[in-house]
Amino acid sequence: MIVFATSDKGGTGRSVTSCNLVYQAALRGLNVGYLDWDFGSPTAGAIFGVDSLNRGTRSGRGQHAYFLGQVLEPETVDIWAASDRNSLRHRPPGSGRMELLPGDEGQGEFRVGEGPIVQRALDILRWAQNEYDLTVVDLSAGRSYALRMALTATRPDENVGRSRWLVFHRWTMQHLTAAHGLVHGAQGLLDTGTKVGHDREDLLDRIRFVRTAIIDPNAPDLRGLRTSQLSWLSERNAELHLRARELELGARWVLGSIPVDPVFQWHEQLLTSSDLYGRETANKVTVDALHDLSLAVLDDDAWEPR
Ligand SMILES: Nc1ncnc2c1ncn2[C@@H]1O[C@H](COP(=O)(O)OP(=O)(O)OP(=O)(O)O)[C@@H](O)[C@H]1O
Ligand SMILES: [Mg+2]
């Protein structure tokens, strides 16, 4: 299964959530791959705790080099071996492979002729389908070149196998509007998708939203807030639920909700057992939500129209 991770805005939690999603799947024994196609800012290595890949790879064999035709076989990084975090270096028994295909440091968004690039996208997606049980492709935010390339490479007649789309957004009015626009608006997923050969209804069935950094107005850790603040929060939350339904971002279309987590607020990383049970910095509800998302993304029932 290939899962494309998209968002209209930047800073939605797309990468942090997606990296943790593949990590949770790897812990369950699945072989997972992470393709960093956020070409303008390929920083997924930092989230996996590989310091040398903080801003992409310096090997000259990253995803940029691959798409530019400079290398035939792009670099794959074994996270269990390469991570600088102790809690990742001790690969849990029974876990699957976890590999990152990083972008190249110092490169940006690129546009070269569509033909060869789409062919390379096809080749690597087919390769990933064979290598991994789950591949997440982190796409540049917005109506990017990467998004168009991914849609083109996965149109039905190309037979790259099963693919799904996650649209990440934060729980604010602006983010709801933006996420709706990315799916339903001009040059959005459905518009571009149908232009390149997708069936609109089929594509829509393979798109779900993920809400990130969600605050539960009834959570016990909000007890420090004033009553006026709590009631304001509840009102805003109700308004957001209403708006989400109007914009076709309601429960029927949501695959997961990730609570706001203190660790993520200050650091982009995988939440390991050492964060949960060692220093007790991460919240269990967050890890549970990430785990549930990693199950839901592969669970056909979770994708059934409700
Ligand atoms: N559930 C959460 N709780 C608190 N903070 C979060 C949560 N999810 C993400 N964040 C934080 O929000 C910031 C943006 O997240 P991230 O980098 O994953 O977003 P992105 O959509 O990939 O952004 P970009 O478009 O820049 O690639 C990060 O500092 C991250 O740690
Ligand atoms: Mg990102």
Automatic annotation (TrEMBL):
UniProt keyword Nucleotide-binding, yes or no: yes
Record keywords: ATP-binding, Nucleotide-binding
Protein name as annotated: CobQ/CobB/MinD/ParA family nucleotide binding protein
Native species: Kineosporia succinea
Lineage, opening ranks: Bacteria, Bacillati, Actinomycetota, Actinomycetes, Kineosporiales
